[in-house]
Amino acid sequence: MYLGVDLGTSLLKLVVLDDAGELIAQESEALNTMRPQPRWSEQHPHDWWVATDNAITRLRKNMGRRWSSIHAIGLSGQMHGAVLLSKQDQVLRPAILWNDTRSDAECRQLTAKVSDLHSVAGNMAMPGFTAPKLLWIARHEPEIFRQTACVLLPKDYLRLCISGEKVSDMSDAAGTLWLDVARRDWSDMLLEACHLDRSKVPRLVEGNAPAAQLRHEVAIRWGLSPGTLIAGGGGDNAASAIGVGAVERGDTLISLGTSGVIFAVNDRFRPNPYSAVHTFCHALPDRWHQMSVMLTAASALRWLCIQIKEDETALLSRVEKLTMAQRASAPLFLPYLSGERTPHNDPLATGQFCGITHATDAPLLAYSVLEGVAFGLADGLLVMQEAGSHLCQASLLGGGARSHTWAQLIADTLNIIITTHHGGEVGAAKGAARLAWLATGGTLRDVCHKPTIKQVFTPDIHAWAQLQNRLKQYRLLYKQQIELRTLCLSDVDLQAVGK
Q: Is residue 210 part of a domain?
């Protein structure tokens, strides 16, 4: 059997696959995010280890004797996070996460400093990536920066905990802005631009390659064989693609987790950074992918339910009963609760409801959130099409895939066929387990087959027509937010002159 560990932002997930590819067991543990200042997002790496250890304990108990059949482990996780370690491998500060937007000034600094940044890294500098985070640390926490002996990504910190090895894979490393994405190797030039060198980053392997072995003391603690193989693994989206069998050119998925992602597989390096489309290595050799990323997706619905004290499942069931006329009267919602990446690359963008009246109730607010996320995906799809990715269907994964209403709304908005799959909510963890299987000799054909389709959602032309008008208003609302921000900045300048 094969264990997959997915270190998400709000949830750590574990799955076990057998050698027929069947899902045998799963477990999860909630994670908390700290926001000590506006635009900051941090977690304590030690909490990841505690969550993993707790979930393993429960999973082992539930599986009984079958647990000892675990043959290899694969890791997946949230990308871009910066874990800073001392020479003694002690964590120096909380990890700065992918949805932290404090380092926009450092993005401009890096772009101005490195003329070849876009062609080598394949992406424009954004606050979510790892490199600008290190420049921010160097500027604002210089003593921490001086003590930094190594920088690890979140899942690779877990690997260090269980193996003692500092290793990353190509798909996760591509999100740092330190990788030469075409060559699939660290770029000395990009590292130097952040005052780093190869001694301060982990060694690299492909996601389906052996990377390390389970430490003896951890193996004894977990009841597994010492020396159990640990695969390279992958960033969460690449691992999700492996989990759903998106491994060949043209395969596409949409992930509705904390973030919202459209992911398309390519067989060559095809960067288009100026539209904020990401180009990363896939978790398999000789494969790359293009990706649009919106920073807030299913987490927007979770946020709303917390604010209005509603149960998410119960609220979605009320949304399903809304008529087309009621949906047309719903407020518009901009889902930029953490700023936005694709296509705006705007860390200052904010969430917004527009059009609230006395008739606006909880189901209408919830529908507005679902629709706003679908519109954000539509913006991402548009620039991906401009970058050469032509989509006519996509697999829908993540926690948001459980909602039939949301799946149909995305199909109608994007005008593409959407399919959901059995086990789609654990796609990244399943992909990690598949990468472990591949690392022990499994073949791509046997391991990475597409899972059974659960449901197919075909776009409705009448719904599409109604949504297009609201999509135009949604895009206008963002433009107005930009204008308002400009006016506010002008007022601040005038006040400064007056003083």
A: yes
